[in-house]
Amino acid sequence: MSNLIAISRKIKDMQSILKISEALQLISSTKLKSYKQIMVQGSDYQSGVNFLFEKFYTSYEHDYRITNSKFVFSPKKQKYPFWIVIGSDLSLCGRFNRQIVDFMVSKFPSNGFILVFGKKLFNLLSSTRLKNFIIANYPSEMNQADISKKISEITKWVLKEYVTRNCYTLQLIFKGSDRPFNNLRLLPFTSDYFGKKNIKYETHEYRVRSTESVIELFPIYLEATLLNSLLDSKIAEHNLRREIMNNAVKAAEEKLNEYKILYQKIRQATITQEISQITAALKCKTN
């Protein structure tokens, strides 16, 4: 009887674990779908911004050294970096944040400024040498209805801080869905800004000055890139947790079935034993 009670408790515990795992699985699946929808809805805008910015940037008329002078005021001997890092606020994604922390600790210079998305990542970084470099912290999970507005406000703040703090480099660090790690260098402008030597294009048909267009478009390009990177990071996170929960649900179901089979075997053995005892008792009385 004691074995039956113990197995019965394990069955109840496993049923609770299964319900929790299924709930987390559903939440991750729902949020994953929502973030993907937001990214798809904004894909045309993102593509348009990227196309225009790259088109003007790679124009014959554009000189990246001139556009740099509008954003980069840092002396050559004082090259402060400004890093934006996107982490995870989800449970069961500790490794997600740990990989970013390890990269930051090993690569971030001895001085500079850091903007952190994610309270859990912020707490991890606060226990390292980088804690004094963090100048702002935002949650990585935002209200999806207000996310575009919030990112727009943050982008304006980033550019203001970048200029007033005399920063030289502006980098965006996050884990995306297409590859395990992304490190985008957004400032200063360079000859190989898009990963390879720029192919120069004629842009006179636009009847605008390419250098001025790059200067005007960069804040929009930065905002679109930051929003897209945050969405990409969220998709990667929720996809990871959904996979973890899928495995947890399968494991819980298998264990629950094992306990149920074991319960039935013990129960059947107990019933058989009780029947045998009753039969034996009746035989004794008959004799």
From TrEMBL:
<keyword id="KW-0406">Ion transport</keyword>
<protein>
    <submittedName>
        <fullName>ATP synthase F1 sector subunit gamma</fullName>
    </submittedName>
</protein>
<keyword id="KW-0375">Hydrogen ion transport</keyword>
<dbReference type="GO" id="GO:0045259">
    <property type="term" value="C:proton-transporting ATP synthase complex"/>
</dbReference>
<dbReference type="Pfam" id="PF00231">
    <property type="entry name" value="ATP-synt"/>
</dbReference>
<keyword id="KW-0139">CF(1)</keyword>
<dbReference type="GO" id="GO:0046933">
    <property type="term" value="F:proton-transporting ATP synthase activity, rotational mechanism"/>
</dbReference>
<dbReference type="InterPro" id="IPR000131">
    <property type="entry name" value="ATP_synth_F1_gsu"/>
</dbReference>
<keyword id="KW-0066">ATP synthesis</keyword>
<feature type="coiled-coil region">
    <location>
        <begin position="235"/>
        <end position="269"/>
    </location>
</feature>
<dbReference type="InterPro" id="IPR035968">
    <property type="entry name" value="ATP_synth_F1_ATPase_gsu"/>
</dbReference>
<comment type="function">
    <text>Produces ATP from ADP in the presence of a proton gradient across the membrane. The gamma chain is believed to be important in regulating ATPase activity and the flow of protons through the CF(0) complex.</text>
</comment>
<comment type="similarity">
    <text>Belongs to the ATPase gamma chain family.</text>
</comment>
<keyword id="KW-0472">Membrane</keyword>
<keyword id="KW-0175">Coiled coil</keyword>
<keyword id="KW-0813">Transport</keyword>
